[in-house]
């Protein structure tokens, strides 16, 4: 990045970024000088702004005499100049704590986390959905329906209940289904669904080779019960409309491209998956998110889990001029509270 910034340059850059976050307008030298409260001449401020522009921290939009921060300028601001508190303001803290009630199931908690992030930050909230295969199997039950149809009731991770209907190769009696469920629960309860699926496949092959018809039928039921159905979305996004508020016609065009990218889920899914494996809050400014579509937007994320494993990541998508000092602690505390709720 070349030579380090002087204290005066840092002060003016910090002030300019804060003004742009607050007002969203290019900042002129005279206004910046007054806002920063420095006893320097207007010419000195102009020279500093020119230097910051040459170094890639600022740029002049169109023919405006004022300047706005670049993604590089925001990155330096976040990394070197920003002061962030450990906790959000008390009202936000209380809202998050009340909403993320440990008595609620995982799906409700994840949805609430995304909604809370959007509501409190006035940006778009995003949360990845935990993969079912990461969760431990608690219990399975089979209920006979008409013909070869069987209702499967899966209890996962102490609180999740999933219902699905499977079609069996033959008709099972109530007693057979109860016995099959009891055997499956005895063999696999407490193990992660992914591990159970793998064991069932291996043991089913072995049972068929040994001509153990009873065990084969039981394992076949288990395999169908645990087969991956159409999964929910990789992640939930709430509050995209908040990004539209106050957007200029030029920004609206970029937002449409961003929404199209978010809808396809490809680029963001890969990024969020990497974030879930990292520790603590991560901040991606502009194209750091891996796509040119994010040029004018930032993504702030933090992973969440249940105390034993990482389950996903949550965060906020908003313009690069978002109030980072407020949003970062909200994302951080939401991830910690969601993890605490899931851990209970």
TrEMBL record:
Keyword Transcription regulation: yes
Highest taxon listed in the record's lineage: Bacteria
Transmembrane segments: none
Keyword Repressor: yes
Heat-inducible transcription repressor HrcA C-terminal domain segment(s): 108-328
SUPFAM superfamilies associated with the record: GAF domain-like, Winged helix' DNA-binding domain
GO biological process: negative regulation of DNA-templated transcription
Keywords (A to Z) from UniProt: Repressor, Stress response, Transcription, Transcription regulation
GO molecular function: DNA binding
Family the entry assigns: Belongs to the HrcA family.
Purpose: Negative regulator of class I heat shock genes (grpE-dnaK-dnaJ and groELS operons). Prevents heat-shock induction of these operons.
Record NCBIfam families: hrcA (TIGR00331)
Protein name from the UniProt record: Heat-inducible transcription repressor HrcA
Lineage, opening ranks: Bacteria, Pseudomonadati, Pseudomonadota, Gammaproteobacteria, Cellvibrionales
Gene name for this UniProt entry: hrcA
